[in-house]
Specification:
The chain has 236 residues and is α/β, with parallel strands linked by helices. It has eight helices and ten strands. A six-stranded mixed beta sheet has the order 6-7-8-3-9-10, sandwiched between helices.
Length: 236
Amino acid sequence: MIEAQNISKIYKSGNVETKALKGVSFSVKEGEFVAIMGPSGSGKSTLMHILGCLDTPTMGQYFFEQRDVSQLSDDELADIRKNKIGFVFQTYNLLPRATVLRNVVLPLVYADVSQEKRENQAKIALQNAGLEESHFHHLSNQLSGGQMQRVAIARALVNNPSLVLADEPTGNLDTKTGRIVLETFQRLNSEQNRTIILITHERYVAEHANRIINILDGSLVEDGRNHRQRILNNKL
């Protein structure tokens, strides 16, 4: 699905250059659940922006579904972000005075989907994200943090994207609630074959994925199967 080939990113401020990424290469196949892990300043957020077609590398190539992202127009990139990638962020980014259903429907409004169809799709996405139907008409600011994050996951799923990109999705949650959200990602991957890339600085969060890519000081230092998670999956 995606392939990064010798990705480097350099930021310039006057005569000062900062190398955020240094020749990072890896690929992700359809249906994988991958965690990209690294401490603050490691370059993982820069990498996330490139994977999400929010930025382009200074050097190297990034292919999304066999298309060289650097060769695409702004409109083509916007189309990928709108229809091919579902984003889940640490801060939820929900409209506080809109209902749960309205928040999830919103991407479909911009996609010019009919009202009946978009409400049906939104309800299915919310069910897949594990939110109880009794909450569909609550305002988002009436929900707990875990519930709001599940609404954000549903919004990311509603366009049936090729890739779900989750940036520190448990960062604002307590450990128990965070585990529930991570189990939601695991279920989406195992039951629906969703391709998920999870960005995190926490080892215990990364261990919910089936593969861990470790980034340090802008370089890829580890890329391997998560043996612990594989053992857990085999027990299910």
